Amino acid sequence: MFRQLENAGLADLHFASDPETGLRAIVAIHSTKRGPAIGGCRFIEYASDDEAITDAIRLARGMSYKAALADLPHGGGKAVVLKPAGNFDRSALMQSFGRFVDSLGGRYITAMDSGTQVTDMDAIATQTRWVSCTSQAGDPSPYTAQGVFEGICAAVHHRLERDRLTGVRIALQGLGHVGLALARQLHAAGAQLLVSDLDRTRVGQAVQAFGARALAPEEIYAAPADVFCPCGLGAIINDDSIAQLNCAIVAGSANNQLAEARHGELLRQRGILYAPDYLINAGGLIFVALHHAGAPASAIAAKVQGIGNQLTALFEQADREGRPTSEVADSRAEAIIARAGRHAGQHPLETL
Ligand code: NAD
């Protein structure tokens, strides 16, 4: 366990169990050097406790890197609430999780993630102030989608030397909160969409609304496209999928897209431009952090739009240095985090 923490550079790991509500939760805090740790709360079923712990640790590190590259005064953290197998009172469970978050005294601020919704954040907010994405604040997904859209435009410009998305073929995996909003924008910009989702209703919606071509989940990797856009779950860029990919660019919202770090280099060797996940999908985090800080909508929009330019600069550096974009992004984020002094215990929300 400690070896796993050290390898990930994790600051601390917290566990909570509350038999009365069925709560079994983990909070992983990667770093508070740049400010309080911030990151979503997952609420999904896990095959084992080890799998849940590994997920929390990996995701927390990604959040630190994301906050650093977005120049937000935060470190990264992530919570995992293991979904109970039987019946349970969802509101009571989330309130219990809220008390757990509160016990960490503001070192960790929670938010929405896979499996959680605005009403869960409202339940958590009855117990702690260290929560965002409540019904008052709103869903960050449209901002994530906007950032991914800017990132796709930057990648298409860099790799395909095209200024517009008209006629650009985009294979979009996952039509959830982010994927569907992104599909709408891509369609409006003239892109041709190929889509897949485990949920056939969502696929039907995209076919009808955006003239998308439906593909079975296993067909999406090999489909001829300019951009493969993963907006489902993580670890989908692996030995198996890289061998199948038939695209020039990988750019999407999913967290932890590379199953292993070496897959960034494998993409480069195959001549596929990869937009590092935690940079292209930072729009939601930017919204959450700046909204709490009371920033105006125009400032949030400008920062999300800036994701495109940030990616262009990163692609150029990777080209110059002959390195994978994922490695360049990691080096940049690690340098920013290393430069930061230890968070001196300011009031967390005042530092957002
Ligand atoms: P979501 O749960 O609303 O949607 C995910 C969709 O992907 C679902 O429709 C699901 O059926 C589909 N899916 C899952 N596995 C699939 C597969 N193998 N093939 C095809 N479809 C599949 O999640 P979301 O909020 O839209 O987020 C999507 C991804 O982006 C996640 O990895 C999430 O961690 C990441 N992300 C989201 C945000 C945000 O603001 N919501 C921010 C940053 C990163």
TrEMBL record:
For this protein, the record's SUPFAM superfamilies field holds: Aminoacid dehydrogenase-like, N-terminal domain, NAD(P)-binding Rossmann-fold domains
Q: Where does NAD(+) bind?
A: 174-179
* GO biological process entries: amino acid metabolic process
Please report the organism this UniProt entry assigns to the protein.
Answer: Marinobacterium nitratireducens
Mind telling me which PANTHER family this protein's record contains? LEUCINE DEHYDROGENASE, VALINE DEHYDROGENASE
Name assigned to this protein: Leucine dehydrogenase
- State the active site: 78 (proton donor/acceptor)
Determine the domain of life of the protein's source: Bacteria
Q: Which InterPro entries match?
A: Aminoacid_DH-like_N_sf, Glu/Leu/Phe/Val/Trp_DH, Glu/Leu/Phe/Val/Trp_DH_C, Glu/Leu/Phe/Val/Trp_DH_dimer, Glu/Phe/Leu/Val/Trp_DH_bac/arc, NAD(P)-bd_dom_sf
What gene codes for this chain?
ldh
Hey, which family's this protein in? Belongs to the Glu/Leu/Phe/Val dehydrogenases family.
